[in-house]
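Suppose a colleague, Dr. K., hands you the sequence of a protein chain of 338 amino acids and asks what its three-dimensional shape might be. Before reaching for any lab equipment, you can write down a predicted structure in token form. Begin with the sequence itself:
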Amino acid sequence: MKAYILRRLLLMIPTLIGITLVCFVLIQFIPGGPVEELISRVQSAAAMRGGADASKALSPEQIEQIREHFGFNEPAWKRYFIWLKQVFLLDLGESYTYGKPVWDVIVTRFPVSLFFGLTSFFISYLICIPLGLLKAVKHGSRFDSVTSGLIFSGYVMPGYALGVLLIIFLSGGSFFDIFPLGGLVSDYYEELSFFGKVLDLLHHLALPMFCYMMSEFAFLTILMKNSALEELGRDYMRTALAKGLSFREAVLKHALRNALIPIVTRMSEIFTLMFAGALLIEKVFDIDGMGLLYYNSMVNRDYNVVMGVILLSSLMAMLGRLFSDILYTMVDPRIKYQ
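The predicted structure, expressed as tokens, is then:
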């Protein structure tokens, strides 16, 4: 197992290089860039002042100095290798938009997405596994039918659309004024006591958290139910019941463990959630997380931030897959990796 883990870790290096190289090449075909953005802002400012012709606000020498400042005076292949060398030195470069190191820009948004991702992940699994198992045991009952209707309703509705509805009904839109419209904390947050701050934060997080986890919640519940249904019909269940085990004992001791194997695959997402972000949900609730950061960086052509997010999210995705493989061996001892 140790040799397998080491091989997987070593393979991550060329895989990351391949992913970032493809993304870097694709970025080169996107019209515009940080140089063009800055030139456009300078020309717009000159036009608003009503002075000289906006097109002559910058001389060719000044434009070349701007290109050199951003490193765009070098060919694309050389810029990639310069960026790759910085990555090996744990330096993701500087953000063109924020004027700060990319690490600092990501770190400021990271806790928000991390909190939403991990909290929704753990709550979903804590509820979905027993709920899916119970639905399988009571398959065809009224409980199964009612819960399936509610679950599918949540599954087919996009998170951002659900967010808009929740704001209309629960945030003073047209009906009740129970939750705040958006943001993470109130304006008077710093004046609150410790427990007041906790309650204020939870008050703001309730609706976006519900939207974050709804689609994942529905998918996991149905996956768990179908997996458990398949295991309940296996021969080993009939054998266990014939040997005198109660149905409850047979389910918990035998069927549950085997039914968890497909669920383990989804657990690999615990790493990608650290850099994931639901852009539209963040936009609806005015939350400055990783999704919004990535979108704004693409719009502003802040390529260093874009490449930094791609690199880190790809790394987390591969670590998640490795984590999933390790969990497989824990859930099913028959699985061996050489």
